[in-house]
Amino acid sequence: MKKPCSKSKLLCAKIQLLRRKMIRCGQFKGYTHPETLKFSEKLDKLIFRYQRENK
After folding, report:
1. Secondary structure (DSSP) of 1-55
2. Sign (positive/negative) of CA torsion 45, 48, 50, 53?
3. pTM summary value
């Protein structure tokens, strides 16, 4: 039987995936491209949520 993922681990996985997407986008489109900045904003929100939940 599979263990259920904790919210923290799932959130960490989402953060890592989004970080990779943001870096890749920045490398190809530029670090100030609107799409890269959107990834950055989403990443900030996820990191803030993670920090808030893991105090």
Report:
1. -PPPPPHHHHHHHHHHHHHHHHHHHHHHH-TTSHHHHHHHHHHHHHHHHHHHHT-
2. negative
3. 0.84
Q: How many CB atoms lie within 10 A of CB 41?
A: 10
Q: Please report the sign of the dihedral spanned by the C-alpha atoms of residue 15, residue 19, residue 21, residue 22.
A: positive
Residue from 47, 38, 36 nearest 14 by CA: 47
Cα separation, 34 vs 20, in Å, equals 16
Asked if residue 1 has pLDDT above 50, the reply is no
- Tell me: the pLDDT tens digits for 3-39? 555 788 899 999 999 999 999 999 999 999 999 999 9
- Separation of alpha carbons 3 and 9, rounded Å: 12
